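My main concern about presentation is that the manuscript never shows what a single data entry looks like. The format is easy to grasp once an entry is in front of the reader. For illustration, here is how one protein appears when written out as sequence plus structure tokens:
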Amino acid sequence: MEGSAIAQFVPLILIFAIMYFLLIRPQQKKIKEHQKMVESLRRGDQVVTQGGLIGKVVKVKDNNELDVELAEGVKVRVVQNTIAQVLSKTEPANADK
């Protein structure tokens, strides 16, 4: 009787394991990569917001905000986590110069 009870749970455990490796783990990896990308944003980076706006980072603020210039003289304040993609990165300033 005990063997059959354990045997009934084996398929559920297998389903959970498959769900973890196919859905949960890749999603966690994607979130970590996005967080790393957002933390590395610098002035001059060209970005795309989740709303589809393309602009250049003018200023990185302390409270999780960015100033993004969409066109000449048109600046918007954007929450860092709403950046979907970085199109071009700026080179870091060289400390030797």
